[in-house]
Request: fold
Amino acid sequence: MTDKSVQQNQRRASPMDMHVGKRIRIRRRLLGLTQGDLADRLDVTFQQVQKYEWGANRVGAGRLYDVSIALEVPIQYFFNDGPQTMPGRSDTGMTTDILSRNDIQSLVRAFSAIDNENCRNRLIDLCEALAKSSQSERPSSSST
Reply:
């Protein structure tokens, strides 16, 4: 392998690099932090945070530890629902896809701000009832 091809391979983000970056972005937004806020916590520029989030720059082990502290999650959080890396492991990526939606992030932030457990449980009941009602109102595919 030539030096140039080695450099190109090192610059290309792997699916896991991109996944870790996406998880950083999701968690940052769930906490209501801007890229600048996270950058301040990490003592880097907001451009560096952008590069981490888009997988343009890999996040080293030490930096990932710092990110986990800044975002108040265990390091394993960044690997949950990641690209399939072990034989026999299935992965739908569903959690990441759902949490990347702005409306879901707003809902999670608002829900997390409710201190009363009874209110949270009633809200869950309401959401489940609305979802059930919404599904029953859909026209069935056999009614044509």
Q: What stands out?
A: The longest helix spans residues 117-137. The mean pLDDT is 81.
